[in-house]
Amino acid sequence: MYFKLRVGPNEYTTEFTRVAFFNSEFPNKMLVMYDGDESVAKYFPHGNAKHSEKTEKPFHNKKKSLLTEMKTSVIDKLPLKVNSDLILAVPQELRRHVVDAPRDLEQVRNAKKAS
User: Fold this and answer.
1) I need a labelling partner for 59 at 20 to 30 A (CA). Which of 24, 44, 75, 96 fits?
2) 102-111 burial: b if 16+ Cβ within 10 Å, else e
3) Any bridge partners for residue 90, and if so which?
């Protein structure tokens, strides 16, 4: 099945095919594979970013376990302390730091509001 894949802001390509795999043992699960030339795809900001400092760098989603840990930690600690503890606990390798550490203090404060 061919379809349009979004590869940039207001930019689409039909150079990919989408293949879905089903397993009868797991009727509510499906594995979706996109097959095509990966060099066509680009990093671009997700649709909610409005300020240039957010749109100029690629968006990396944080691990769900990190978000859960932030919500439980801010109950008995200040957001600044939680942010510092989580940043120091992460390996310093940049690729791991991008998804394993809070983006900024504002993200920890938002977790406190959500808890």
Assistant:
1) 75
2) beeeebbbbb
3) none
The dihedral of CA 105, 110, 112, 115: what is its sign? Answer: negative
Q: Tokens 């590869």 identify what position? A: 7
Token output for 112: 């406190």
For every residue of 8-38, DSSP letters joined together read ETTEEE--EEEEEEEETTEEEEEEEEEEE-G
Tokens of 108: 């920890």
What lies within 8 Å, CB to CB, of 41 at 6+ separation is: 5, 7
Whether the predicted pLDDT of 1 surpasses 60: no
| Number of Cβ atoms within 10 Å of the Cβ of 98 | 14
Contact 63, 106 (CB under 8 A): no
